Amino acid sequence: MKKQYFLNAAIIDPKNSLDEMGGLIVSEEGKIEAVGKKVNKNNIPSREKFIDLSGKHIFPGLVDMRVFVGEPGYEYKENFKTLSNAALAGGVTSVVTMPNTSPIIDNVSIVDFLKRRGRDKSKINIYPSASLTKNLEGNNMTEFGLLQKKGIIGFTDGTKTIQNSRLMSRIMRSAFDLGCLIMQHAEDNELSQNGMMNDGVIATKLGLQGIPEVAEKIIIERDLSLLEDFNCRYHISQISSSKSLEVIEKKKDQIDFTTGVSINNLSLNENDIGDFKTFLKVSPPLRKEADRKALIQGIKDGVIDVIVSDHKPEDEESKRLPFAQAAEGSIGIETLLSLALELYHNGSLPLKKIIETITCNPAKILKIDKGTLKKGSDADLCIFDLDQPWKVDVSKLKSKSKNAAIENRKLQGKVLMTYLKGESVFNIQ
Questions:
Q1: What domains does the chain contain, in order, with CATH numbers?
Q2: How far is it, in rounded angstroms, from Cα 258 to Cα 238?
Q3: Buried b (16+ CB within 10 A) or exposed e, 230-255
Q4: Rounded to 10 degrees, what is the CA torsion of 363, 364, 365, 370?
Q5: With contact defined as beta carbons under 8 Å apart, do 417 and 407 qualify?
Q6: Which 3-state string (H, E, C) describes 143-210?
Q7: Which of 185, 63, 181, 77 minimizes the C-alpha distance to 130?
């Protein structure tokens, strides 16, 4: 690989407090050699060719903490190759995959297979998570120690929640002893049973069973109470309501934990469901507009640490059904950055704060050396035009499944190029 020079770029790297015009040099080994305002045309060899970015932005490659891939078992929804293509088109270079596959990721033999497939079929950095409980049944813990040694980044039951408090306390104790990361999807089964959308006036009008906000709040309160005793690495996968936010805000200064939010809950609300739009059936459900605004404020205040795509491919047959029968989930990894930057364009959040939540913050939680442009790190880069308008055309998205919640949405800002370890892996041209 030849040494590469990127000049006249707007560089943002929140981890290193970098927000300036300048350039970036990638070494022959695919590492960042230099970055910042000192890298300009006058400071590089005169014969060297360079890429003039003309004021376009360079961000660290994005880190997405919650991604569902269909492999193994559901390759017809998404496989590692199509996931990789979609991620790179969205500037995402590192993902945490959920264990909700067939077979479920709950033993070391499956982990070996998963890592091989991820390495052979995708270009992105794959960090697999394993299930908290065997077969996702919520009864017996998986072998945290063995799985962690095999390269598992964290433990979660994906779309399911640990309901048993005694089991959750055992999980936290083991996680503390082994230094494991626990990622919990917060939803009380009894309260959310048969629920399809946010519990409220709109659900009543549509004749749909609601999921109350308190179903999420109760689990968060319980887990944070347990965390006071066990103090393990604990992450709330995604929250959806202002009630949950209030609980988290009160506990944030007392105990160590982190919180995520789905881009769906930052960009949409229950009103968008309209006449039974099943592509907007997600988990946690879309809440009221007041909840959406509260979540944005939570990011601004530093109460929420991470934004995730919650990328969950589903085939058309499972979505084009009556609302009650339709599968939950939407794709979103390719549109994550553009959609998040709506919050910058409309003045809701500073640009640097948004980039922080999808680069260095998730990398810090996962304890991986990603989401940064520091000297010596892998040159995982996202080159972005902040102003380019485009319209979401699901037929042109790279994902195998096309269940996008924001079909035909007009967005401002587009990924132009993505680099992985200095290698060009996506170019819009």
A1: 4-58+379-400+412-427 (2.30.40.10), 60-366 (3.20.20.140)
A2: 10
A3: bebbbbbbbbbbbbbbebbeebbeee
A4: 20
A5: no
A6: CHHHHHHCCCCCECCCCCCCCCHHHHHHHHHHHHHHCCEEEECCCCHHHHCCCCEECCHHHHHHCCCE
A7: 181
Residue written as tokens 């035009």?
Answer: 385
Question: What phi and psi values does residue 181 have, to the nearest 5 degrees?
Answer: -95, 125
Give yes or no for residue 429 having a pLDDT over 80.
no
Average pLDDT over residues 177-185: 97
Model confidence pLDDT, tens digit, residues 96-147: 999 999 999 999 989 988 888 888 999 999 999 999 999 999 999 999 999 9
pTM of the entire structure? Answer: 0.96
Question: Within 13 Å of residue 259, how many CA atoms lie on the same side as its CB?
Answer: 26
Distance CA 319, CA 327 (A): 6
Our measurement of the distance from residue 269's CA atom to the centroid of its chain's CA atoms, rounded to an integer in Å, reads 19
Taking a C-beta distance cutoff of 8 angstroms, is the pair 244, 238 a contact? no
What's the pLDDT score for residue 343? 97
The catalytic residue positions are 310
SS (H, E, C) the chain: CCCEEEEEEEEEEHHHCEEEEEEEEECCCCEEEEEECCCCHHHCCCCCCCEECCCCEEEECEEEEEECCCCCCCCCCCCHHHHHHHHHHCCEEEEEECCCCCCCCCCHHHHHHHHHHHHHHCCCEEEECECCEHHHCCCCECCHHHHHHCCCCCECCCCCCCCCHHHHHHHHHHHHHHCCEEEECCCCHHHHCCCCEECCHHHHHHCCCEECCHHHHHHHHHHHHHHHHHCCEEEECCCCCHHHHHHHHHHCCCCCCEEEEEHHHHHCCHHHHCCCCHHHCCCCCCCCHHHHHHHHHHHHCCCCCEEECCECCCCHHHHCCCCCCCCCCEECCCCHHHHHCHHHHCCCCCHHHHHHHCCHHHHHHHCCCCCCCCCCCECCEEEEEEEEEEECCHHHCCCCCCCECCCCCEEEEEEEEEEECCEEEEECC
